Amino acid sequence: MTSTRSADARLIPVFIVDAFAERPFTGNPAAVCVLDGPADAAWMQHVAAEMNLSDTAFLYAEADRFRLRWFTPVTEVDLCGHATLASAHVLWESGRLPLEEIARFETRSGLLTAGRDGAMIVLDFPATPPQPADAPPGLGAALGTKAKYVGRSRFDLLVEVESASIVRALNPDVTTLAALPARGVMVTAVSGDRACDFVSRFFAPAVGIAEDPVTGSAHCCLAPFWAERLGKTDMIGHQVSARGGVVHVGVRGDRVRLGGSAVTVLRGALTV
Questions:
Q1: Are 78 and 137 found together in one domain?
Q2: For the chain, what percent of residues have pLDDT higher than 90?
Q3: 3-state class of 44 per DSSP?
Q4: I want to staple 48 with a disulfide (CB 3.0 to 4.6 A). Which of 42, 56, 102, 193 is the partner?
Q5: Using CA atoms, how far apart are residues 124 and 127, in angstroms rounded to an integer?
Q6: 41: which residues sit within 8 A by CB, 6+ positions away?
């Protein structure tokens, strides 16, 4: 087969990383594109649509840190945990950043950092605690269950339900959820299991993600919510999507630590 790539085509390294995962094909896959410098937003959106994953990260070196942006298949977002974790993993694994150095990212949510704690990557993110809120019309019907508590964070709606089994069994009407005034809807309950403290699922059809497998940014809300109720600052959250994933959380004032592992499943290049 003859290649149709022109001689002057430029290749951009791209990786797919399963984040909040200890083995391939679990956790939340993110694409990570390592750029030489700023890129056109429309082009990045086209790439994210082509990748068709929950989020695609674009980063490039900028002084002593990296500029980082995140795109779902349909829009740019202000905060993304799993694609940040994936980006740090790529920097260390590819040798672009020494293993002992902290990864620093300039983002739409300010400076975010990632460090290593053994095999775990730990992110330092802003806490986004929920405030009690009235349930938007149609929320209960769309979820198919009653809410024990409804709150609103900076980005999303938080719905607490009576049990972990209800969270696992949810089959929501994502078309109705997409029309709600929020980026997404997280549904959570105390776990009732010694392996973790709470369970959750996250639905964000408004930004092109029917259900996100494991959502770091949602845990910026879930962590302070459950810290207040359980009287603990360090907890384990299990996002019980089909792929599933575990997020280690620690509440530190107005910041949240998010810990998890990552596995590279693809290395390649984009042609531009």
A1: no
A2: 94
A3: helix
A4: 56
A5: 9
A6: 76
Residues 135, 117: one domain?
A: no
Give domain status of residue 236, yes or no. Answer: yes
Angstrom CA distances, 109 to 63, 115, 217, stand at 19, 18, 11
Question: Per DSSP, what are the bridge partners of residue 158?
Answer: 151, 186
Q: Is residue 4 one of the residues assigned to a domain?
A: no
138 and 157 housed in the same domain: yes
The CATH number that applies at residue 17 is: 3.10.310.10
Ramachandran angles phi, psi of 197, nearest 5°: -95, -35
Domain total of the chain: 2
Q: Write the pLDDT tens digit of every residue in 56-107.
A: 999 999 999 999 999 999 999 999 999 999 999 999 999 999 999 999 999 9
CB atoms within 10 A of CB 172: 20
Residue 213 makes CB contacts below 8 A (sequence gap 6+) with 27, 28, 29, 54, 239, 241, 242, 243, 244, 245
Q: What is the pLDDT of residue 4?
A: 53
Mean pLDDT of 10-38: 97
The answer to whether the CB of 152 falls within 8 A of the CB of 124 is: no
pTM of the model: 0.94
Longest distance between any two alpha carbons in the chain, whole Å: 63
- Same-domain status, 248 and 267: no
Residue 181 belongs to domain spanning = 131-253
Cβ-based neighbours of 49, under 8 Å, separated by 6 or more: 73, 74
Query: For residue 58, what are the β-bridge partners?
Result: 33, 69
